[in-house]
Predict the 3D structure of the following.
Amino acid sequence: MQRDLNSIPRHVAIVMDGNGRWAKKRFMPRFFGHKQGVDALVRCVQACSDRGIQYLTVFAFSSENWKRPEEEITGLLGLVLVAVSKYLTKLAEKGVRIRIVGDRSAVTDKVRLAWDEAERTTAHNSGIVLSVAFNYGGRWDVVQACRQLVAQGLPAEQIDEARLSSHMALAHAPDPDLFIRTGGEVRISNFLLWQVAYSELYFTDCLWPDFDEAQLDAALAAFAGRERRFGDVKARLPQAAAPGG
Ligand code: IPE
Ligand code: IPE
Ligand code: MG
């Protein structure tokens, strides 16, 4: 497909929602939906990379998801280990660079080690940057960034947007150009609160395990049709104006 490169978002962020409902529709346990969700993610990374997207950030487990039944939480933590052992080599070979964003202090040692391995193995890759938000919350992120500045003893007048941004969990990426949420809910659910200030928002009823190349292309087509102004009166190129980007 011929594409205007300016219309391709540099950074796409996705709330991968709807796994449980996808499984329920098939009379299967919720875990089955999460498992299919991992496969959908791996396909999505490839599809984004093929389209020239440089950063993909996905919401895998929120700060609030600890409220779920213990069995589901245990299943999700176990799935991290399965996903890393099943897909890390393949993603690494394709040049994907993996980053984990979120509070690692609350996850098990095994999960922490798996994350470390994923980051270490792909640290020198130069392809698409896949940031997986796990035990992540937008509010947590703002607070942890503030804490870092305070711990450095920074005087109040030296705290500005750029400095705070540089201590946020996604400091390695520009702000998302396109924010996608699958699963039909029209809310942010404490994902990237600070970084979505000027993202284009796209909501779809598609349940995450069904999110495929056609769904991605529909989101990209919607994005290409948006006029971004960043507070100005005239349209501006996505890459040119994003604060923090
Ligand atoms: C998203 O799917 C994945 C996680 C939050 C871990 P859900 O588990 O929220 O699925 P639904 O929204 O209940 O269908
Ligand atoms: C957001 O989905 C979190 C992830 C997709 C990881 P939720 O299913 O937790 O969000 P709510 O509860 O519907 O707002
Ligand atoms: Mg949900």
Q: What stands out?
A: The chain has eight helices and six strands. The pocket of IPE (ligand 2) is lined by residues 15-17, 59-62, 65, 185, 187, 189 (CB under 6 Å). Residues 240-245 have pLDDT under 50 and may be disordered.
